[in-house]
Specification:
Length: 451
């Protein structure tokens, strides 16, 4: 299969599974990912009832069946037809009730009468159904109603998350985090899982400087549980994968520190890919698990790149966020963008001159034109197009231009060990690709060390 077919198959295989904070749906999802993509990963768990910072790990929840029968005995709401029909973590119930009582436990979207909403009751033992609002106005909504939910809350259960580590040449870690607690929602939740495994597949083919830790966990309590058990001293940044396969423009939710290398590299990666504007959302302590990673005790900067960001599309948390809403080509676009992000992260360094005094003599190192008097001379450039800037010899695949010479000048000015390559690109106004190529040239000639 080509990549689009592979992406579509993973979406199709995982979409029907009923995922929640805990339970068999999460385990089924993890087992699939381990078998197909992540054979060296580990499923970690924490027992129900365990205190994780200010939270208590909830009971494990599983559901077998649920439905509502109308007064004619017709099944008008059916969990087996859509797992969104039941409010996640609903307790068991089996009784006949009138319309007034049912409506107290029924969730609909009057503004979108043909959609089923997604609702939960994780930390308040209750029960409820979700359905299309049009059902309430149809001739099927006939009392009395038999409501039936066959579910189980197990205080001896556990919450699980999946971890997979791609070791680099250093112990410095970048975390790649996504969540696995939603049922059949394609862009919100599932697209992050799909992207994460294909991105990790790509990472596994590379020799990397940084170590990358993939964490797939239930949102909020899963990330909190992971952090309560993790050794985080080596984590220097991260990315949260969420809502990455919708039809809207690429967007970036920034990390809380806009000057952090994770944040700067995310902007650079997007700009390399797009010939158009993209949406920037400033950091706010809401949304996904950036809330946990960025809390004062950790301060891990975790930007997120989106394609149809949560909260920003009408289909969000409804049955309209289905396999027709997402597109494998959209996910592949964000995959390629994340690959570029990774490649930029791998270049991150603090170049430092080995000699801090005055300019280096670049000419004797084949980093300067052999004919003098031509620099910044428009008449010369018009006639000769600056060909003397080519073939400096440090990389045959690089077409050397005057931009590199400009970069050498800025590096000699700023490479004191306190400015990163990203800082130098920003201060000089020279694209990061040229800065990195120029750092490579000067490093190969023993003019720079990389911190």
């Amino acid at each position: 299969m080509d990549l689009e077919q592979r992406v579509l198959k993973v979406f199709s295989d995982l979409f029907p599974i009923n995922r929640s904070l805990t339970g068999k749906g999460v385990e089924e999802t993890f087992n699939y990912l381990i078998e197909k993509f992540l054979p060296n990963s580990k499923i970690n768990s924490i027992p129900s009832g365990t205190k994780a910072y200010d939270w208590i790990v909830p009971e494990e929840w599983n559901i077998k069946d649920a439905y509502v029968l109308n007064g004619l005995g017709e099944k008008i709401i059916d969990f087996k037809e859509s797992n969104l029909h039941v409010m996640s973590y609903s307790k068991s119930i089996n009784k006949t009730i009138d319309a007034k009582e049912l409506l107290q436990h029924l969730h609909t979207l009057p503004n979108y009468p043909d959609r089923i909403p997604y609702r939960t009751t994780y930390y308040n033992k209750n029960w409820g159904f979700c359905c299309k609002h049009e059902l309430l106005e149809s001739d099927k909504f006939i009392p009395p109603f038999k409501v039936f939910i066959d579910s189980e809350h197990n205080s001896n259960g556990s919450l699980k998350w999946l971890e997979c580590v791609k070791k680099g040449s250093t112990k410095k870690e970048i975390i790649i985090s996504t969540y696995c607690c939603h049922p059949s929602l394609a862009n919100d939740n599932l697209s992050g899982i799909v992207l994460s495994v294909f991105l990790y597949e790509y990472l596994s083919s590379l020799d990397t400087k940084f170590t990358y830790r993939l964490v797939i966990a239930p949102e909020t309590i899963g990330a909190i549980s992971f952090l309560s058990k993790a050794k985080t001293k080596n984590i220097i940044g991260g990315m949260v994968l969420s809502c990455v396969a919708g039809p809207d423009k690429i967007s970036l939710k920034e990390g809380f520190n806009v000057n952090h290398f994770m944040n700067k590299s995310a902007h650079m990666a997007i700009k390399q890919h797009l010939n158009s504007d993209y949406i920037v959302y400033p950091f706010a302590p809401d949304g996904s698990d950036e809330r946990q990673y960025s809390s004062p005790g950790f301060k891990i900067v975790t930007p997120s790149i989106h394609k149809s960001k949560y909260y920003e599309y009408d289909e969000y948390h409804t049955s309209a966020d289905n396999l027709d809403y997402v597109n494998p080509a959209f996910l592949i676009e964000t995959l390629e963008l994340h690959k570029t992000w990774i490649s930029l992260l791998e270049t991150f360094c603090y170049p430092k001159r080995k000699n801090m005094f005055c300019e280096f003599q670049l000419g004797r190192r084949d980093l300067y034109p052999q004919v003098g008097g031509t620099l910044n001379q428009s008449a010369h450039l018009d006639s000769d197009k600056g060909n003397e800037y080519r073939n400096f010899g440090f990389n045959k695949n690089i077409d050397i231009t005057g931009k590199h010479l400009n970069a050498f000048n800025w590096l000699m000015h700023l490479a004191d060990g306190s400015n990163s390559n990203f800082d130098i690109a920003e201060k000089s106004g020279i694209e990061i690709v040229i800065i990195n190529q120029s750092i490579e040239a000067m490093f190969q000639r023993d003019l720079l060390e990389l911190l």
